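Sequence in, structure out.
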Amino acid sequence: MPLTREYPVNRLKQKLAAGEIGVIANGPNNSDACDFLGQLGFDAAFVDFEHGGVSWSELSDITRACELWGMASVVRVNKLDEALILRTLDQGASGVFVPHVITADDARLAADACRYPPRGRRGVAGGRRAYGVSDYFNRADAEVQCLALIEDFEAIDNLPEMVKVEGLDVFYVAPSDMAASMGHTGNPAHPDVQQAIERAIKSVVDAGRVAGTLVNDSNVDRFVEMGARCLGVPWTPWVAQGAENFLERLAR
């Protein structure tokens, strides 16, 4: 008799739906790193298909490692493309970060690519997450997460229309790309960039939708006060700081 199992719960989506803060660990996340991070209590691990060195053959193992700890896996694809989003989800990703979502049409395309008909346009296939799961297609639609990257200055004026699109779970404002789009490449701390980020987050929060952004130890309180609840945090600076403190101690 075939064995059955429950479809993995998306902890990041669950916490955000409950009005809580969800935290994504950003870093060079391979399967071993995700297995290590899972014990620390992060809600999700960030997997980079845009700038990172992750291959398709590694993605299933990365998502499995996350599932061992009940941790979601959110994958940044390198462009808004239905086929690319489809393949990413079929490899077991809990959610997809879609770059350069600028217009309401972009938002609808991204949201539809993440869900099966009639809710969307995702190509119908099972993939490894379907094995042993009853009512797979409904469960997959219920747990999947579509995160729109708001990383272009022109997207901010379009947010009042974009936030009306159903199926977009998070509007995530990306500081470095926002800075580049404003002519301040490499300087996300520029006052004009910070003002734009704040305006974008306010637009999303005022509409009752989930806003997110990248944070660190020095600015997290500020962004939480703005209402951002989906927070990405790079974990490598913590490693670097720990190493620096340890080596300084030995040198003394």
